[in-house]
Amino acid sequence: MKQMNMRKNGKMTVGMLLLFLCIVLAVLVPVLAPWSSTEMHADIRSQGMSFAHPFGTDKFGRDLFVRVWCGVRISLCVGLASALLNGALGILYGAASGYAGKTADNILMRIADIVASVPSLLYVILIMMVLGANEVSILVGLCISGWIETARIVRGEVMRIKEREFVLASRLAGAGPLRIFLTHLLPNAAGPIVVSLTFLVPQAIFTEAFLSFMGVGIPAPRASLGTMIQAARSQIFVYPYQMLIPTVVLCILILSLNLIGAGLEAKIRRRREGM
After folding, report:
1. Is 31 among the domain residues?
2. Strand, helix or coil at 57?
3. 121 closest CA partner among 106, 138, 100
4. Is residue 221 part of a domain?
5. Residue 108 falls within a domain, yes or no?
6. Is residue 231 part of a domain?
7. Can you give the pLDDT of all 275 residues of the chain as single tens digits?
């Protein structure tokens, strides 16, 4: 049984180890490294991997090791902030919709359907045209429709739980809607909510990298994984490491978060099935 549980939790363990490594490097490397992410050196342009430059340098002589982990830090900040904001909006909206009742529930969910009918990337691009290309613009754009999936999950959980005996007993005892939600509904719906938020982070990271790759995200010379991949695209056959290294790091970062989400989802499913 222990070996089976370890095997089932293996995905989450691997994901947590990879994510922990990415976080540690993203925090420490930009602070401790002797090079800055924007510092250019004409005499070391496009150098290969070495002890002084573990990931080599780009065509402007900037250290790729520092730039990659600065890019990971930006990606993590955007992803985590997006998950927290979208989670808060989704929990409030979904709880109100699920607890309110038939008419209010129908109105609120139709509004959510209308908002979700527009692709999230379009929201982000429109916001960036108004506020400029920066992390705040990406975050605002992601939060326009990113909360809807969480809201639907919370709504379903609230509707499933609100008619159970302990909730009805609390209501008969005089507890108000807010107290019932905080005491009974939210704790019992916490599992699916956490899984939903976990999957929101890689989605936000990929969106930020994709926008930067397309030239409408984080502007150069700031270090973004998408910007570095786009800048190295023209030299992929000459200096392939300049494009491959940030691409691999981005894939590892997204993979680690997806593994954690999949592990949490499987764990919650087993708990509900009584395993």
Report:
1. no
2. strand
3. 138
4. yes
5. yes
6. yes
7. 444 454 557 778 898 999 999 999 999 988 888 888 877 887 888 888 888 888 888 888 888 899 999 999 998 998 899 889 998 898 889 888 887 777 888 898 899 999 888 888 888 888 888 887 788 888 888 888 888 888 888 888 888 877 777 777 777 777 777 777 777 777 777 778 888 888 888 988 988 888 888 877 787 777 888 888 888 888 888 888 889 999 999 999 999 999 988 888 887 777 766 54
How many separate domains does the chain show?
1
Could you tell me the residue range of the domain that residue 183 belongs to?
67-261
Contact, 149 vs 90, CB < 8 A? yes
Could you tell me the two tokens for 238? 């000459």
User: Contact 242/58 with Cβ under 8 angstroms?
Assistant: yes
Give the orientation angle of helix 135-145 with respect to helix 120-131, to 10 degrees. Answer: 140
Residue given tokens 């420490």 in the structure block: 28
Whole-prediction pTM: 0.83
Q: How far apart are CA 69 and CA 37, in angstroms?
A: 9
What is the end-to-end Cα distance of the chain in Å, rounded? 11
Domain CATH number, residue 106: 1.10.3720.10
Whole-angstrom Cα distance, residue 137 to residue 273? 42
Amino acid at 182: L
Q: How far apart are CA 208 and CA 216, in angstroms?
A: 9
Helix orientation angle between 225-232 and 64-100, rounded to the nearest 10 degrees: 130
